[in-house]
Amino acid sequence: MLFKEKDYWKCCGIEMQRGQVVYFSQIFLIYIIILTCIVNLSLGNGDSNLWTALLSSCIGYILPSPKIKITKNKKNDDSNASNSIIGSI
User: Fold this and answer.
1) Which of 56, 51, 57, 21 is nearest to 39 (CA)?
2) How far apart (Å, rounded) are the C-alpha atoms in residues 67 and 58?
3) Which one of 1, 39, 72, 87 has the largest count of C-beta atoms within 10 Å of its C-beta?
4) In degrees, to the nearest 5, what angle opens at C-alpha 26 toward C-alphas 23 and 29?
């Protein structure tokens, strides 16, 4: 029999979705790490290469990767527009 994880976790007497708890916990920890990096870089504490690498890694984790979203209707509209321009010449 397979073990099925609960979709909801109880936290402080409140039932919350598992995905939300994990997401907000990760974001909270990343922001603490970013704040710590900025403070240590500003004060000049420790190795600046370490803090810079950690800071850039955390920022890269938070920022979404760029994606091009092309909808089917939008693509057809663009091709129709180019056909109408070519047809009018």
Assistant:
1) 51
2) 20
3) 39
4) 150
For residues 13-40, average pLDDT: 90
**Structure tokens of 7?**
């979709």
Report d(CA 86, CA 5) in Å as an integer.
58
Residue 87 structure tokens: 């047809």
* Helix, strand and coil in the chain, % to nearest 5: 65, 10, 25
Q: For tokens 């704040």, what's the residue?
A: 35
Residue pair 53/43 in contact by the 8 Å Cβ criterion: no
Q: What is the pLDDT of residues 41-70, one digit of tens each?
A: 999 988 999 999 999 999 988 888 777 777
Task: Provide the 3-class DSSP secondary structure of residue 9.
Answer: strand
At residue 85, does pLDDT exceed 60?
no
Task: Reply yes or no on whether the pLDDT at 31 is more than 90.
Answer: yes
